[in-house]
Amino acid sequence: MDNFIFSVNVTIPIFLIILLGYILRRIGFLTDEFVRVANKYVFIVALPVMLFRDIAGSDVRKDMNVKFFLFCMIVTIIMFFLVWGIAKLTLKDKTMVGAFAQAGARGSAAILGVAFVENICGEIGMTPLMIVAAVPFFNILSVIILVFNANTEAN
């Protein structure tokens, strides 16, 4: 029960912020233009600066956990292929399988992942380095998914 309460305490603040943004958008406090500019700022300026600052302040040799790295890599591979399989089985329009699987598997580790790790651990540690290392890996898996579905999409 303690683990459940801990998980709720970690998760609820993040989802309350998401809910607040949704409500502010629905009542018109946040406009489409603001959201477009804010997204651009976060992904082009704030997130890269935060990741660089956190990576620059970490000791890779001291903080590196090979078991955690391998766990993340294996889970990512499983998740990619699971989403791909579900897309192949459930999507009626087979031309969308590759694009759906690629987009569905990527997720938002850089945004939600960092927030969850900060709430769980108090500090980010190796998470930014894992995110930066994961992007090329995500790209490779995305290309594999798109290539294997190119025949279906061409037809």
Please provide a written account of the structure.
- The protein is mainly α and 155 residues long.
- Helix content is 83%, strand content 0%.
- It contains 8 helices and no strands.
- The radius of gyration is 18 Å and the shape is globular.
- The N and C termini lie far apart (52 Å).
Radius of gyration based on Cα positions: 18 Å
Q: Which runs of at least 5 residues are low in confidence (pLDDT < 50)?
A: none
Question: Based on DSSP secondary structure assignment, what is the total number of beta strands?
Answer: 0
State the end-to-end distance.
52 Å
Pairing-aware structural class of the strands and helices?
A: mainly alpha
Q: Largest sheet, described in full?
A: none
Helix/strand order, N-terminal first: HHHHHHHH
Strand content: under 5%
- SS element count, helices: 8
What level of helicity do the residues show?
Answer: over 70%
Which geometry do the CA atoms define?
globular
Mean of all residue-level pLDDT scores: 82
